[in-house]
Amino acid sequence: PGGLLTIDLRHDDPLPLDNRAYLVVPEPKEERVLLISEVEDPYIKYALASAKGLTLQTAVPPVIPPFENFDIVILGEVRSTSLLPGTIESLATYAEKGGNVVIVASDKLQELGGMDPILPVALQGGSGRGKMEVRTVNELTLDLDLQGVTTKYLLAEAREGSITLATAGIDGSPVLAVWSKGKGKVAYFGIKPERSWSDFHLSPSFPIFWVRLTDWMRGTNMVENKNFATGDLVPLGERVEVKTPTGMVTTDRLLLDETGVYEFKGDSIATNLLDERESEIAPGSTVPKEEVKGTV
Fold it and tell me: Would you say 175 and 132 are in contact if contact means Cβ atoms under 8 Å apart?
């Protein structure tokens, strides 16, 4: 079960502030993912099958279940004539309200109208072929076999406010990009998983990337994203009202300068201070016997 765990060390020392530790444990939740595509996409399906806590449903336009029934929606290869009027607008609204969207590149993507408000890249029309270059090393791209992979790509430019993870070609078109859309997240996966584009979908890095991407999108359910050290800076994506351990602040970059629990947008995170002297485990160090009390 999830909740807030408080651990108290009953011991007098020069730094009593770190004698209480907080741990926010998220409620276990099965996330629902919707994959929309007119063609069979086994590689993405197999990749998502390796992600724990995901239930995948596929849909072929024009019959698409309500986006609100899902935590993540993946838009694969579809023709504009297959989508009912207002589908793309509904997808943008879904993201604005907190839904997570992944848009997979295909030649048909450029034919879809109404994509500008949701895509983290601006499609320029046409395509190219070139080698990929990692532009941002983070939890999504670390140690993946992306650098130097040859791929077909759609000519594009990064939109203001987006983060480009990888580019391709001498023009530097983004092929992996993310941004915040209202309360939700949107990712552009510009490498169609088929041989005429690249061999990346055959790499061991392919399922690893998709697991990381879905973990990032549903990151509020991960323990490591709920608990921090004092001094950490947490980007919130937009200015929100935050209840700190001692008051209220409004910010888009939360500095965790107090120990305790922070609450915002219906969520909670915990911050703790560690005393390095008390944590010393070198030979000759001593740790007093203490009573440990935990509460949930």
Answer: yes
Tell me whether residue 240 is exposed, middle or buried, using C-beta atoms within 10 angstroms of its C-beta: 0 to 12, 13 to 18, 19 or more.
middle
Residue 234 has a pLDDT of 84
CB-neighbour burial class of residue 211 (10 A; exposed 0-12, middle 13-18, buried 19+): middle
Helices 42-49 and 205-217: angle between axes, nearest 10 degrees: 70
Please provide residue 221's backbone torsions phi and psi, each rounded to the nearest 5 degrees.
Answer: -100, 10
Q: DSSP alpha helices (H): ranges in the chain? A: 42-49, 87-96, 205-217
Residue 56 CB contacts under 8 Å (≥ 6 apart), including other chains: 33, 35, 45, 48, 49
- DSSP letters spanning 97-135: TT-EEEEE--GGGGG-TT-TTT-SEEEEEEEEEEEEEE-
Give phi and psi for 29, each to the nearest 5: -145, 130
In tens, the pLDDT along 139-198 reads 889 888 899 999 999 999 999 999 999 999 999 999 999 999 988 999 999 999 999 999
Sign of the C-alpha dihedral, residues 189, 190, 191, 192? positive
pLDDT tens string 231-258: 888 878 778 999 999 999 999 889 999 9
Cα separation of 16 and 280, whole Å? 16
User: CA 66 → CA 70, 96, 102, 187, distances in Å?
Assistant: 8, 15, 16, 20
CA distance 66 to 63: 10
pLDDT tens string 268-284: 889 987 544 443 434 44
- Backbone angles phi and psi of 237, in degrees to 5: 85, -25
